[in-house]
């Protein structure tokens, strides 16, 4: 889609929204769920979840990587998670990985030598996944690793312990459109 057509489509969509929805959205946000996923252009959160505007607070990062909690080296991702949990009071967080993820491939030795910022983001010390050669298994292991990092955030751990927050891991298969959820020993279709 060229840029001109994209702008026309976006304007037409914006114009077709009801005034009531526009007033509701302008009054402030009250999302119930934070959705952390990859920046990959093939991931369309509203299509995956069926969410209406204003119901999801989204965080998109390369490879849906969640940095370890550190007040001495705060990141935009940390601040966004903190805002969603402590200010907006979301009751659910979904960490959603996907098939055919370039960042997950890079974690397993994919060639990113020409991308120094990406190498830094995926640097040693970030959570690593298993060496299983199957991309789906790697992606699902990666989601589990990101959940572990997220659950180590003190304010997340406190809210989970009190029952105010639930954390979920999802995996989206780009080819089939199927979404599966992280269970104790496997990912099961939703």
UniProtKB/TrEMBL annotation:
It is an enzyme of class 4 (lyase). It holds the Pfam family Pro_CA. Binds 1 zinc ion per subunit. Keywords: Lyase, Metal-binding, Zinc. SMART domains: Pro_CA (SM00947). GO terms for biological process: carbon utilization. Its EC number is 4.2.1.1. Its cofactor is Zn(2+). GO terms for molecular function: carbonate dehydratase activity; zinc ion binding. Gene3D superfamilies: Carbonic anhydrase. The keyword Lyase applies. Zn(2+) binds at residues 38, 40, 98, 101. It catalyses: hydrogencarbonate + H(+) = CO2 + H2O. Catalyzes the reversible hydration of carbon dioxide to form bicarbonate. Reversible hydration of carbon dioxide. Belongs to the beta-class carbonic anhydrase family. This is Carbonic anhydrase. It comes from Lentzea flaviverrucosa.
